[in-house]
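User: quick one, sequence for these C-alpha cells?
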C-alpha cells in the first residue's frame, strides 16, 4: 500500500534475510572475505557478532558465491546431541549410512568415506554451523575430531562456526584449547556507526527502487534512529518500516519528529503518545506484547483512519503471552535480545579519572511493610530505576542498554540458583519474581545479608525484606550492568593482543604501586602469572584466562562498578 507512495518497488526494510539487501560496510566485506577464506583454506573459521548485526545475511551471501566444486552441509539446530548432529551432516552431504546401526563410529566412518570420494573428484567440502554458541562441549569436541580427516596434503573438511559472542567465551575454556588453536581466522561483527547507519538506510532504499533524492529520512531523524537502535541493522529495519507506514498514514513525504515518536512508541510497546481515544480501545498489555506483521498492519490502519476520517476504530484483539527479554531492555517484539558491542573506542581510564557513575546517596533501609511497597509489575521500569539509581543518565528517547553501550556499559541477564550466587555477581540487580498469585513481578536488590535483602522501591527509597519472603518467589532471573574495558569482546588467553590487556596491566600497576605496567597490549607470560595471583587472592579459579568474571572482580577492587551493600543482619 505505501510502497507506491514512496516510489518503492518492494518492501525496503523487511527483516527477512535477503542477500540483495546486504549493506557491505568495510567490516562486512572483511567478514565475507573470512568466510570465503574458510571455504578454500583449512581448519576452522569463526564469525561472531551480536543478534541482528547481519551474520545470517553474510552467510547467505556466501552461499551465492561458493565455487562450483564446493559441497556444503549447513547445521541449523546445533542443540541436537552428537549422534543426531552427525546424522544431519551426513544427510546434508548425501553420505550414506546404515540406519539400523547408528552410532558415532559408523557415522564418522561414513562421513570419512564420503569426504575421500569427494576429494578424489576435486571437490571441497564445507561444514557451516549456525548458532554455534548452542553447541555442547561434547559436540564441539566431535566437530574438532572431524578436522582430523585429512590426506597427506590437506584437510578434507573445512568448518565455519557462526554464533553470538558467547561462542568466544565457550571456545576460551581450557578444555576447548585444542579446537581454539585450530581456528585460522576470526571475525567479530559490531553494530553500525552513525555514518554507516545513514549509508545502510540509503542502500536499502536504493535496492528497493526509490528514486534518487527522495529519501524520506532526513539527517536529524537518522541520528535519532541510530541512537534508538544502537546501530543494530535488524532494529533499524523494524523502526524504519514503522516510520514509512506512519508517514504514509499521515500523508507526509518525509519522516518528522511526530512520526518518529509514534514509531518509537510502537516498537518499544508503550502508548503514551497515541491519541487517548485509541488507547481506550486497546488493552495496554496487547500493545506491549503484540509484534510482527500483524501489528504493522494494525497500526497502519489506525493511522490511516485517524488521518483520513478522524473516526474511532473498533478493534478486538487477544493479547499473546508477555515474555521478558533475556539480555536487553524492553526490546522490539520481533527482535532477539541484542547486546551490541561498543562502536566508539573510549580512552583508557583509571578509577581516579573516570568513575563508572555517581550513585545516589545510600539511605538506611527501613523494614518492609506491604509487599506492594517494593514490587514492580514493569520489567522496563525496574531496569530504568536501577540504572538511574546507579547514576547513569539515560534518555526516554531510547532503550537505556543500547544507549549505554557507547560508554561500554554492558547489560547482563543471568539465571542464578542461590543468594550466594547473587553475592558473587555483587552488583545491584533486578530480580524477576513469580508471586503466590502466579503473576510476574520485579524487584531491585541493592544490598544483601544472610537474612535480609535491601530493596529499592518504585518510590525511590530502600527497605529491607526477609530473604525467606523473596526466596520462594525469585525465579533466578537477574539483570545487572558492569563496565567493560576498552576492546573487550572475547575471553583473552596468553599470546593474544588487546587494548583490554593494556587496561588490565594499568590497573595492576596501581594495585602494586608500580611505576610501569607489566605489558602493553600483549598478553605476556608475566601478565598471565599476575592474573593468576589476582584470581587466587579473589577466590576465583586461577587459570590465567581473562574473562568477564575476572574483569568484573577487577572493577570491584578498583571501585569502578557499584556493588551490593553488605547488610549486617
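Assistant:
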Amino acid at each position: 500500500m505505501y510502497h507506491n507512495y514512496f516510489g518503492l518497488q518492494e518492501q525496503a526494510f523487511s527483516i527477512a534475510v535477503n542477500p540483495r539487501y546486504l549493506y557491505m560496510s568495510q567490516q562486512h566485506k572483511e567478514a565475507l572475505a573470512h568466510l570465503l577464506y574458510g571455504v578454500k583454506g583449512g581448519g576452522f573459521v569463526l564469525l561472531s557478532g551480536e543478534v541482528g548485526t547481519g551474520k545470517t545475511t553474510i552467510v547467505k551471501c556466501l552461499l551465492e558465491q561458493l565455487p562450483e566444486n564446493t559441497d556444503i552441509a549447513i547445521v541449523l539446530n546445533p542443540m541436537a546431541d552428537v549422534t543426531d548432529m552427525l546424522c544431519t551432516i551426513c544427510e546434508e552431504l548425501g553420505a550414506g549410512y546404515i540406519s539400523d546401526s547408528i552410532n558415532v563410529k559408523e557415522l564418522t566412518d561414513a562421513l570419512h568415506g564420503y569426504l575421500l570420494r569427494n576429494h578424489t573428484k576435486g571437490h571441497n567440502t564445507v561444514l557451516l554451523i549456525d548458532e554455534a554458541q548452542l553447541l555442547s562441549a561434547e559436540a564441539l569436541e566431535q566437530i574438532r575430531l572431524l578436522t582430523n580427516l585429512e590426506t597427506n596434503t590437506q584437510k578434507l573438511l573445512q568448518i565455519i562456526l557462526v554464533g553470538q559472542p558467547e561462542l568466544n567465551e565457550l571456545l576460551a575454556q581450557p578444555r576447548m584449547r585444542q579446537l581454539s588453536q585450530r581456528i585460522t581466522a576470526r571475525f567479530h561483527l559490531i553494530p553500525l556507526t552513525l555514518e554507516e547507519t545513514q549509508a545502510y538506510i540509503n542502500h536499502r532504499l536504493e535496492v528497493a527502487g526509490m528514486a534518487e533524492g527522495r529519501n524520506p529520512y532526513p539527517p536529524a531523524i537518522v541520528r535519532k534512529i541510530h541512537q534508538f537502535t544502537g546501530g543494530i541493522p535488524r532494529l533499524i529495519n523494524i523502526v524504519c518500516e514503522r516510520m514509512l507506514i506512519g508517514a504514509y498514514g499521515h500523508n507526509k513525504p518525509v519522516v518528522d519528529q511526530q512520526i518518529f515518536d509514534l514509531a518509537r512508541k510502537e516498537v518499544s510497546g508503550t502508548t503514551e503518545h497515541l491519541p487517548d481515544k485509541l488507547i481506550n480501545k486497546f488493552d495496554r498489555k496487547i500493545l506491549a506484547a503484540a509484534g510482527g506483521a500483524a501489528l504493522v498492519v494494525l497500526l497502519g490502519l489506525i493511522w490511516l483512519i485517524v488521518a483520513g476520517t478522524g473516526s474511532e476504530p473498533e478493534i478486538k484483539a487477544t493479547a499473546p503471552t508477555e515474555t521478558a527479554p533475556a539480555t536487553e531492555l524492553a526490546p522490539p517484539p520481533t527482535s532477539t535480545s541484542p547486546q551490541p558491542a561498543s562502536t566508539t573506542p573510549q580512552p583508557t581510564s583509571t578509577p581516579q579519572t573516570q568513575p563508572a557513575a555517581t550513585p545516589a546517596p545510600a539511605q538506611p533501609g527501613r523494614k518492609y511493610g506491604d509487599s506492594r511497597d517494593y514490587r514492580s509489575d514493569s520489567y522496563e521500569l525496574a531496569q530504568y530505576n536501577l540504572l538511574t539509581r546507579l547514576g547513569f543518565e539515560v534518555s526516554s528517547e531510547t532503550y537505556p542498554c543500547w544507549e549505554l553501550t557507547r560508554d561500554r556499559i554492558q547489560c547482563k541477564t543471568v539465571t542464578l540458583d542461590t543468594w550466594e550466587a547473587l553475592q558473587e555477581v555483587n552488583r545491584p540487580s533486578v530480580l524477576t519474581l513469580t508471586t503466590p498469585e502466579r503473576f510476574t513481578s520485579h524487584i531491585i536488590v541493592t544490598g544483601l545479608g544472610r537474612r535480609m535483602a535491601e530493596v529499592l522501591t518504585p518510590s525511590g527509597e530502600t527497605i529491607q525484606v526477609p530473604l525467606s519472603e523473596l526466596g520462594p518467589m525469585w525465579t533466578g532471573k537477574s539483570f545487572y550492568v558492569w563496565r567493560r574495558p576498552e576492546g573487550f569482546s572475547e575471553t583473552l588467553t596468553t599470546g593474544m593482543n588487546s587494548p583490554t590487556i593494556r587496561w588490565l596491566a594499568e590497573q595492576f600497576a596501581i594495585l602494586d604501586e608500580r611505576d610501569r605496567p607489566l605489558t602493553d597490549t600483549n598478553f605476556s607470560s608475566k601478565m598471565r602469572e599476575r592474573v593468576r595471583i589476582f584470581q587466587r587472592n579473589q577466590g576465583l579459579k586461577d587459570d590465567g584466562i581473562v574473562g568477564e568474571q575476572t574483569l568484573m572482580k577487577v572493577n570491584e577492587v578498583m571501585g569502578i562498578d557499584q556493588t551490593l551493600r553488605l547488610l549486617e543482619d
